[in-house]
Amino acid sequence: MALASPSNLLTLHAAGKKVTKDLAYAKSNRYKYGLRATTIPDSSLFKGLSKEDPGPKALPTLTECAVHLEMLEAFQALRQEVIHSAALDKAFNILPEEKTVYRKKWTGTRRQRTYVIESRKIKDTTFATRRNSKWTYFLQIGAERFHQWIQIVNNCLKDHHENNADVSRYLLLPPLDVLMIWHAYLLNCDDFKTYCTTQKLDYVQNIVFPWAEIHAAINPDNWSYTLPLEHADWLRNVGNIDDNLIDALSNTPHTIQTKTITKHPAWRLLCEFDKTPKKAWAENDGNPFIETLSKARSTKKQNAPLVANVERQVIFVDKMHGHRWIRSPAAHGTLRRAVDRYDKFLHLFRLYPNNFLVPTLDVDLVWHTHQCSAENYRQFVTERAGKFINHDDKIGRGTLDNGFTSAEEWYRLAYGEQYQVCLCWTCEAILSAVEKLDDDALASGEATASLSDLSQRVEREVHYYREVETARRLRKALPIWNHG
């Protein structure tokens, strides 16, 4: 295990950071480049994905955690698309303001000086901030669509239950904006339970999160999310809900042709979305999309907690995007170890019931995955920890720091293992490779040769995966693995 010692890991970690930095500037001479690159993420990550209810006695699987990582990448891609979409700029009438200043410029000789007016356009320094506001508007509309969707789903589940019929899985797969609101709400367990009780959503709490359907809807090349045709048709026919909110907003007509050309009611709503309406909107003309926009605009205050849930989760989404475990060569090992560490973390609550404990980033991912199936999580954690553990992401920084220190101390005491570990690709790849080594080989005289070969293999593999990811980010041809 000398290769996995803290000093060796630190050295390899530093070398890995340098390699990653260098990759951004030039292609490596190690590889050919083309379209036949290794499939990343590895499809075997998702072989254990099941549509069946695992029940309240099962921990989250590494496969479910992998789909969760995919989903978080889809959320991150959605946010970037919303903020940088020129079509949405036009939809919300967020355009750069052009300001022209004039000044005198003198010409001619000293005795016969005349001047002309010169004009110069000043850059709009507020445009970037105003563009970012689209994200909040988008979430406010998504929150209203979430209320519509979950009510329809609950009614359908009720009908299926009363008629003793199987539940169609497309009922549980919402559009991406609704999925994002739902996901963030589930991570505030008590708040979501209270909401379901208040709204009489008796069947929604028992939903097992549709990981298999979410995986099928995500394109792993660019993290786009597309509902299957039957899902999209069902949403439109049953709930008058568009399957893609960005497209629905971007395609909003700006004007209508009557005797005179006037603003389209939907566009008027979007242009005034940041303003508080003085009275109810009366121009929906039976149009469900206009009705949704109108209600979203008038219920911004009531939906503020749902929007805040998503905004707080943006930090976690960005962290997951930064680590990019879903593209890591050690994804299997990272997620398998994370599930094991999460199980131990829950047991700490039974061992030290009066302590507030904060998870590491990998444990938090598994915890979030578990909470997505609300009732299964509630039953499992109550039995495992001896009490229900509410996940509250509204806790302040100071309390979190104290809770992390306590968790670190009790984890080391209970299991004799390090709590906070480096989770970069290099360190995780080394740990995974060492775990696969044959114990007999390590105990024999071949150990040194085995570790030397392992070190070179890990270095090659991590370098290749880093270069593939860099090529993806730069939208260049992908390197092809040529190490056999």
Question: In terms of topology, how is this protein built?
Answer:
Layout: H1 6-23, E1 32-34, H2 62-84, H3 86-91, E2 99-107, E3 114-122, H4 127-162, H5 176-186, H6 189-198, H7 211-217, E4 218-219, E5 224-225, H8 229-239, H9 245-250, E6 255-257, E7 261-263, H10 265-271, H11 288-298, H12 304-323, H13 331-351, H14 361-371, H15 374-385, H16 397-415, H17 425-436, H18 439-443, H19 447-473, E8 478-480
Antiparallel strand pairs: 1-8, 2-3, 4-5, 6-7
Helix pairs in contact: 1-17, 1-19, 2-4, 2-7, 2-12, 2-13, 4-5, 4-11, 4-12, 5-12, 10-11, 13-14, 13-17, 17-19
Distance from first to last alpha carbon: 26 Å
User: β content, as a range?
Assistant: 5-15%
Low-confidence stretches: none
- Say how many strands there are: 8
Largest sheet: 2 strands, antiparallel
Instruction: Give the integer mean of the pLDDT values.
Output: 84
- Please bin the fraction of helical residues: 55-70%
User: Which geometry do the CA atoms define?
Assistant: globular
- Oligomerization category of the chains in this entry: single chain
> Helical element count?
19
Total separate domains: 2
- Order of strands in the sheet with most strands: 1-8
Gyration radius over CA? 27 Å
> What is the element string, with H for helices and E for strands?
HEHHEEHHHHEEHHEEHHHHHHHHHHE
Q: Structural class, judged by helices and strands?
A: mainly alpha
